[in-house]
């Protein structure tokens, strides 16, 4: 282990920026192979420790719990590492390829279900040569893309028990939401084929319906926006189960002074699930939300809880929807049920909650408006959009040239 640390120390001081493109890629290839070999040793050690019940030495029940606490792994990652270690015991060809660096931990995770006790039993009952399956899958993993390997493993498992009960799809699903200190949320998860198809269909419907002119978002950004819109639609519909008699909603807590201050105010507000957002984001949410005033003493203990009031009453929202028909930001046509009612002059700064002071904006463009962009309705009823530098965004304008 000391030699390994020394080798890593030597790698850390190399000037990688001075390498040429081919050298960079060759170095990455070697590092990937080395990582695979380290992952193989990690899985082997985890299995050995599990067999010895080593976590008991630290007062813990299982390797999974030890990896979560001492290794700071997510529950999903800890569980998969344990399953990989167990599977490799029964798949020597795969274990060898893994130890040589030819196979990744992710590929081992795909193959691991082949080696569970019930599937090994089923293979023996049908005369399947598990050693041959092991060699075939190890070779496939070393040469073919992960997607092709996944299809082959799925086909093998389906043929192994063609008449057995359909697997419970919920057992194949997992989703972890990891929240960082700045409120950013990272998603890690897995869905079964049917569940994944349902989500893909819903996201694709939203993505294809929301394609404004000049959209430069990547495919990943479009899908992420669609997932947020899917959650927004579900919350707005009001059909979700109640949480301890309370209708599920996005909760943001912010001091009144920060809400009234026009400055961006980074990390000024706290969300209900522990994230931090800026005062500008809180003001955007407050445009078309419910407000509950709370008076606190010097120790932060609530002294008085005011009545919750909906900022935009239903009849006003309906009037804004009838007038605007869709998001009013130039080039966007997001439907009304995707939109918030934005106060042109924020109510915290004295703006009225009225039809004249309201505009319909989708989430993305509502955020833009609270970060420097501006929409304005001219006397003729036409909405105009301006950039932070006050230049107007004009859609379909013809360029005039002189000869």
Automatic annotation (TrEMBL):
<dbReference type="Pfam" id="PF02720">
    <property type="entry name" value="DUF222"/>
</dbReference>
<dbReference type="InterPro" id="IPR003615">
    <property type="entry name" value="HNH_nuc"/>
</dbReference>
<protein>
    <submittedName>
        <fullName>DUF222 domain-containing protein</fullName>
    </submittedName>
</protein>
<dbReference type="InterPro" id="IPR003870">
    <property type="entry name" value="DUF222"/>
</dbReference>
<feature type="domain" description="HNH nuclease">
    <location>
        <begin position="315"/>
        <end position="367"/>
    </location>
</feature>
């Amino acid at each position: 282990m000391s030699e390994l640390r020394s080798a890593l120390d030597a790698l850390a001081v190399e000037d990688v920026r001075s390498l040429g493109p081919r050298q960079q890629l060759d170095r990455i290839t070697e590092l990937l192979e080395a990582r695979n070999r380290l992952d193989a040793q990690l899985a082997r050690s985890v299995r050995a420790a599990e067999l010895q019940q080593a976590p008991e030495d630290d007062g813990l029940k299982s390797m999974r719990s030890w990896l979560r606490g001492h290794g700071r792994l997510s529950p999903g990652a800890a569980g998969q590492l344990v399953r990989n270690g167990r599977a490799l015991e029964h798949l020597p060809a795969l274990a060898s390829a893994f130890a040589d660096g030819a196979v990744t931990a992710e590929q081992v995770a795909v193959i691991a279900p082949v080696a569970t006790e019930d599937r090994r039993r089923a293979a023996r009952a049908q005369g399947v040569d598990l050693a041959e399956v092991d060699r075939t899958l190890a070779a496939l993993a070393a040469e073919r893309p992960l997607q092709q390997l996944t299809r082959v493993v799925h086909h093998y498992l389906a043929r192994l028990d063609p008449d057995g009960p359909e697997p419970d799809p919920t057992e194949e699903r997992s989703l972890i939401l990891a929240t960082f200190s700045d409120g950013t949320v990272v998603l890690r998860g897995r869905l079964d084929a049917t569940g994944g198809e349902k989500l893909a269909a819903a996201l694709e419907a939203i993505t294809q319906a929301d394609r404004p002119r000049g959209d430069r978002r990547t495919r990943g950004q479009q899908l992420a926006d669609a997932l947020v819109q899917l959650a927004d639609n579900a919350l707005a519909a009001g059909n979700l189960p109640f949480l301890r008699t309370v209708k599920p909603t996005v909760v943001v807590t912010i001091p009144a002074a920060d809400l009234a201050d026009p400055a961006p105010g980074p990390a000024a507000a706290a969300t209900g699930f522990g994230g931090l957002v800026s005062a500008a984001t809180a003001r955007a949410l407050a445009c078309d939300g419910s407000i509950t005033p709370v008076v606190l003493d010097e120790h932060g203990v609530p002294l008085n809880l005011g009545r919750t009031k909906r900022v935009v009453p239903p009849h006003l929202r309906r009037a804004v929807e009838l007038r605007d028909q869709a998001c009013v930001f130039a080039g966007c046509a997001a439907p009304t049920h995707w939109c918030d009612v934005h106060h042109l002059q924020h109510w915290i700064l004295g703006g009225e909650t009225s039809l004249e002071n309201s505009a319909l904006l989708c989430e993305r463009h509502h955020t833009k408006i609270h970060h420097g962009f501006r929409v304005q309705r001219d006397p003729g009823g036409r909405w105009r959009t301006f950039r932070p530098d006050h230049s107007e965004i004009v859609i379909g304008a013809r360029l005039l040239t002189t000869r």
